[in-house]
Amino acid sequence: MNDILVLGSSSSAGKSTITMFLLNILKQNNIKALPFKAQNFSNNSTVADDNTEIAFAQYFQAKSIDLKTSYFMNPLLVKSANNQKLHIILNGKFFDEINTSEFYTNIDTFKSSIEKSYKN
Question: Of 102, 63, 57, nearest to 77 (Cα)?
Answer without folding.
Answer: 57
